[in-house]
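User: Here's a structure from my thesis project, written as structure tokens. My advisor, Dr. K., wants to see whether a designed sequence matches the one we expressed. Can you design one independently, without my sequence as a hint?
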């Protein structure tokens, strides 16, 4: 079946640091700041984190209440961000805030953000940060993108992170299915492997079909992304479509995998439970399936109207 980056369940925040936060830097307009930060990111000397989410129960990318007020030396940022993946080990934060002229992105070094940092764990055990910004001062040359650029930069980085996360979810459910099929071949009951029972065979086939649909859907999205004239709304629709598909499939496959393992699947000694926890975490990060079905429908209707 093949694996995928998610098949190993590595705890490093590669997508959060390189694709999401790194993408916001790349698509920003501050060339001097790019020259300073991006080489360090590429060499592994810098781990950035994107602080965008402000409400645990909402995943609206551009719903920003954090404020950036003009001062004599730059801006003063006040507000709060939550569930910052990679924030526990970040060297700095890309923070979205509403300035006098509209949405902007700012670079805040970890030392300046440290007083407002607190930490919690995701269901899969990885730490995330909550960030309270109480009048943090930022110089003008630390603005990554201003109004007119920030929203587009943030959206493109977000969409690319959705696609990479979908690929990771595909890796998670692929490996979970491989583990389960191996178990069905080796677990013996009533004198024969339980994989010989027709009911479990049909169930395994259903899960395999879900996994293959995800793989082909991801291939289709990646093929569409090769178009150099692809519009931003179309890219966003593709990203939401694949995230919804992979989130649903990975949860179904990993949950059914637990059940097909029986009581052993719930034990700490069995790796299949770790794949379920990673699937739960990734399926909800950047918005769950319901969020992205609604986003896809909204974008598709907008495209039809145009």
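Assistant: Designed independently from the structure alone:
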């Amino acid at each position: 079946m093949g694996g995928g980056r998610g098949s190993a369940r590595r705890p490093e925040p590669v997508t959060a640091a390189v694709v999401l936060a790194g993408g916001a830097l790349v698509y920003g307009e501050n060339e001097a700041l790019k020259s300073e930060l991006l080489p360090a990111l590429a060499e592994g000397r810098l781990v950035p984190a994107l602080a965008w989410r402000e409400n645990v129960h909402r995943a609206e990318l551009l719903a920003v209440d954090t404020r950036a007020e003009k001062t004599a030396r730059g801006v003063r940022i006040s507000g709060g961000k939550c569930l910052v993946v990679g924030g526990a080990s970040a060297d700095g934060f890309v923070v979205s805030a509403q300035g006098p002229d509209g949405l902007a992105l700012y670079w805040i070094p970890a030392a300046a953000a440290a007083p407002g940092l607190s930490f919690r764990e995701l269901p899969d055990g990885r730490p995330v940060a909550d960030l309270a910004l109480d009048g943090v001062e930022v110089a003008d040359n630390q603005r990554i993108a201003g109004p007119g650029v920030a929203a587009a930069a943030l959206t493109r980085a977000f969409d690319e992170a959705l696609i990479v996360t979908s690929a990771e979810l595909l890796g998670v459910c692929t490996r979970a299915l491989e583990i389960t099929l191996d178990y069905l071949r080796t677990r013996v009951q009533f004198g024969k492997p339980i994989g010989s029972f027709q009911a479990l065979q049909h169930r395994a086939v259903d899960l395999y079909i879900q996994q293959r649909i995800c793989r082909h859907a991801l291939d289709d999205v990646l093929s569409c992304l090769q178009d150099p004239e692809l519009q931003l709304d179309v890219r966003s629709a593709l990203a939401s479509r694949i995230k919804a598909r992979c989130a649903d499939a990975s949860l179904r496959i990993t949950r059914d995998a637990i059940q097909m393992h029986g009581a052993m699947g719930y034990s700490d000694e069995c790796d299949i439970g770790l794949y379920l926890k990673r699937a739960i975490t990734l399926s909800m990060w950047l918005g769950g399936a319901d969020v992205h079905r609604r986003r896809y429908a909204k974008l598709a209707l907008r495209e039809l109207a145009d």
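When you compare it with your expressed construct, this may help: The chain is about 50% helix and 20% strand.
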